Structures
1.
Amino acid sequence: MHRSRRGPAHSRSQSPGVASCDRRARPRVGCTRNGRRHTVRRTAYADDRRRARSLPHRDRAQHRGTHVAKRKDNSEIDGRKLRWQEHKLARRAELSDGALAAIRARGSNTGMDEIAAEIGVSKTVLYRYFDDKADLTSAATMRFMETRLAPALAAALGQEDLDEFDLAEAAISVYVRTVADEPEIYPFIMGMTSGGTGVRAALENSERIVAELLAGVLSERLRRLGFLTEGSLTWAYGVVGAVQLATHRWMMDRSTPVEELIEHLLMLAWGGITAIAHAQGDRRVFMSERHELPVPKA
């Protein structure tokens, strides 16, 4: 009669009141093996190892690989998510460029169907990357700022060989002419400001970019002269606001030549710049002086 090598489980040595530990069974805390009490952690990894030992040798490597794959799932998901986000940003930029081209070609009242047709995609594709027309307008606004207005202003303000008057004229001229040269883009953007907070946020972000760019140049010029610079950001926002609103009003009817608009704005801006220079950038000095209009005597 054949006898089992291991013998019956109840014949092994065990401590009273403590369950025996069978290596083939799921381990339990506080069991005994070979007459010695020990503790076994209940982990998924330990279970995987026990299952692997029960497999034929040729299948063990493949089984071990499944546990490694499980641990990689999160990183693989994160990688896919990152790649999708990068693709989405690139595709949004591409479609925004296409939307700007469509508006230039078809006018400021162009709808989503016409934009899609001009780009050569279905409207479903547009809605895959944009929530609605307001979202597309917001993206197109920022794209216009990034590709047209900001680079042009940076080039104008970066001309170190210009004196302060010529620099002010160059900056105002670039802003006004860039907007004036886009008779369809500007009304398209401004016409959507009531369509949602996204478009307004994009416009505010554009204003911030221009104002901070101007403030940096103004602050550097004042610092070179030894003047105070604490008001630079406020002055920059004041100039940007004045130029933007005056240009906006002018775009509605274009009742005067663009050169006149630029020169009137330059008069306003230069008056502020000379006042800042006279007080050396110090508001206390400015407020302590008596100011009168320099009216020419007859």
Note: Residues 133-283 form a domain with the Tetracycline Repressor; domain 2 fold (CATH 1.10.357.10).
2.
Amino acid sequence: MFEALGGSASEAASDGSVIGAVLRAAAVLALVGGALLLRLVRALGTATHRDAAG
């Protein structure tokens, strides 16, 4: 997954595009954070429905 976003940070830094490496890192963090947040929201929603039904 990380390679699909454009290579490693060391390669980007050697090319002189440190900003690109930072943006890629931010994109990875956003994807991972978004997935975790979505999972958390679904878990909370399921628990709420379970409590309401019980």
Note: The longest helix spans residues 18-53.
3.
Amino acid sequence: IESRLEDYHSRLTGLAAELDALRRYHRQTLQELPMGVCSLAKDQEILMWNKAMEELTGIAAQRVVGSRLNTLGDPWKELLQGFINLPDEHLHKQHLALDGQTRWLNL
């Protein structure tokens, strides 16, 4: 949907153009947050992977956006799939071994 909206951007007028501008503003805000943010569709397609998520994971957004969560390599696939399969909305102090270092993440 995002790519289709980008294609139609120059053709939008009135209320549709205002809503598109608001969508773009919110998307840019999420992209620039200093914390990792990713967004998934119900079928686990990765819809968004912000700059902080790129830095945290070492995975470029252009590589994962549009792909399914199960195509990510571990430890990220295991961590994120485990989180979405739980009823909890937040998980605190999740242990992650990465490059010989221990990281603690809140999801």
Note: The CA atoms of residues 90 and 107 lie 5 Å apart.
4.
Amino acid sequence: MPYHLSVTLISEVQIITILLISTFFFLILLILGIKKSYKLRKENDRLNEISALNDDESDKAYKDFTDGHLYE
């Protein structure tokens, strides 16, 4: 007489619940990562713009600033 052992450790509903929670967790991590990447790119563009302005100032000829001081 064949019998069916119906003792399961994890039911299908529990598996689906765990998968949904895991998917939701990693979706939140993905959204936060994309948001941080966007902020870093924006900050990088801003710093590159400032760096370009500083490079323009450093290309100027050297000006002696010691004329007004008493360095003798």
Note: Residues 14-58 form one domain.
